[in-house]
Structures are given as structure tokens and as C-alpha cells.
Amino acid sequence: VKFDDKWVSDSDVLAGILEEKYPEPVLKTPPEFASVGSKIFGSFVTFLKSKDPSDGSEQALLNELKALDEHLKAHGPYIAGEKVTAADLSLAPKLYHLKV
To answer: Is the pTM for the entire model greater than 0.85?
Structure first.
């Protein structure tokens, strides 16, 4: 996306710019939910790169996914409750990559 003659491709940066330019609806994630799901993609990459099936990387990924699932059951349907936030926008494409 091009903002003020500058190309921006990072989704987290884009979310910040959109939040600043268009403050409604609020996308800011409440601090207590900001880290929810933040380790999933790193765990996924570690699992993909793993050459040792017994190194625990698969279980670590499954643990992160289970933690997200439990969080959503308790607080959902989105990370911070009833409204989509920047955390959801950041996590959704990563979960899509995981599914593919």
C-alpha cells in the first residue's frame, strides 16, 4: 500500500498507519491481549525447519495453538472479545499460512 509517497508492505505497520489515519473503528489491541498468539508463527517456522521429529517442535506448535483455542473459547470470538483488533489482523494471515 502506498501512503504519502511511501510503499508499506508490513502488515503490522499498515495496521498502525490505518489506526492513526482512521481511528474508528478502534483497532488497538488492549495490552492484556497483545501477546495472545504471538508465538504461533515462530513455533510453526521452527517446526517446518526441524529435521528431528522428536525435538519437541511439533508439540510446541500444538501447545501454542491449543492456548489460542482456549483463549478464544474464554474471551472470543476474537482475541480481545467482540471486536476485531490489530492482533487479529496480524494473526489471521499467519494462521492461514499454517493451514496451507
So the answer is: no
